[in-house]
Amino acid sequence: MMTASSVLQSALDPAGPQAARISHLWWLMFWATTAVFIVVMAFLGWAIVRGVRLRSREHEESGTLLKGNTTRERALMRGVAVAVGATIAILFVLLVASVSTGRAVGSLGASSAVSIVVTGHQWWWQVEYEDQIPSQRVKTANEIHIPIGRPVVLKVTSTDVIHSFWVPNLHGKRDLIPGYTTAIWIQADRPGVYRGQCAEFCGYQHAHMAFYVTAETDDEFQRWLAAERQPSATPTGDLERHGRDVFLASTCAQCHAIRGTIAGATLGPELTHVASRGTIGAGTLPNSRGHLAGWVVDSQSIKPGNRMPPNGIGGDDLQALLAYLETLK
Ligand code: CUA
Fold first, then answer.
1. Can you give the pLDDT at residue 6?
2. Which band of pLDDT confidence, cut at 50, 70 and 90, is reported for residue 76?
3. 1-228 carries CATH number 2.60.40.420
4. Which of 5, 113, 202, 269 is the most buried (most CB within 10 A)?
5. Which atom of ligand 1 is nearest to the CA of 163?
């Protein structure tokens, strides 16, 4: 399960081939610019010390020292030419490295790739696993499961404003443009939970637009996918059954879908297997009963500006609703 210490979010700890290329480029740029900085500072220090000495000598020799010294001028011009040449060479090397990294991370291009459509919303992520057979498609939110060692193509888009999809351990940033779909290829080479976040300011709750990528073995992934394809669990207890009725009779059903019931709205995240997710509110809170209660009653006090209105449900109805939501594993 997700705990703060087991979740990774670092571009310098690559878990896949593209992130590895990006981190190589990062280190090349880091060491190149560090070397340039050290050399420039060394020359600056040398120039300051020399300037102070020359000025004091000039003072003694009444200002004639620097005039007409062509040998010194020629040496100076040579130095400037060498520095310009070195600058052009360094920039050229960085340009070539940057372009070749960009090309390398562009595509993994395998036909066996898992294909996932990721849609940005203010402020959450809709995740849909594509399949030739429509009934096998799976919709979830804010959590992406991928098998390790296999390329995954993410088709990213947005329905409202520009967002940016970023899982630093797996890839660089990619903008989600309304009305336009872009493909990103990712691959995880080791299992883990990698945190991602929106990397383009997209409104009030931009900072509360996180998600998690769980990379697991192919067996685990297939098990997860098979479970997600199932319709929601039918409640067995009286309390849970009452909770389902509360859900279907209240405003909940106007925005959310729970497959296996008549709730089929698509305005908010699909809740068919909401209890199997680690967080609510796109990584805002852990998915516990208490947090869920607070969210259902007044999510505006937790994540102001989100599209879920405060809810009048209280007392026994609320407890029943929470009990029902907890069965949606
Ligand atoms: Cu979505 Cu920032």
1. 72
2. confident
3. yes
4. 269
5. 1
